[in-house]
Design a protein that fits this description.
Number of helices: 2
Structural class: alpha+beta
Number of strands: 6
Largest sheet: 6 strands, mixed
Strand content: 25-35%
Mean pLDDT: 92
Distance between the termini: 14 Å
Low-confidence stretches: none
Strand order of the largest sheet: 5-4-3-2-1-6
Shape: globular
Helix content: 10-25%
């Protein structure tokens, strides 16, 4: 991640994203529809370059994410710590 910063924004296709503004593997796209979340990311397989990699799409639920990553105080502190460090991508050039 460049300079240790991560950025967020909204794409024109209805997906939001989080990025470190590096190569395509540093971009994570997501869209929420009720309890469902669609996640897309570039996923190079062993022996592939980033340019050869395809985009992987996964579907998860908000309730599942909360259950798996936001249940105890330690998890909440970790997630909230990351979230508090996110900056809007509109501020990227100000850094």
């Amino acid at each position: 991640m460049s300079d240790g910063m991560m950025w967020y924004g909204n794409g024109s296709d209805g997906f939001s994203y989080v990025t470190a503004n590096g190569d395509p593997t540093s971009w994570l796209y997501f869209k929420r529809n009720g309890n469902d979340v669609t996640i897309k990311y570039v996923d190079p397989k062993e022996g592939q370059s980033v340019a050869e990699a395809s985009t992987t799409t996964k579907h998860v639920t908000v309730s599942g994410l909360l259950r798996d990553y936001y249940t105890n105080q330690s998890q909440k502190d970790e997630v909230n710590g990351y979230a508090n460090k996110l900056k809007p991508e509109s501020d990227y050039n100000d850094n």
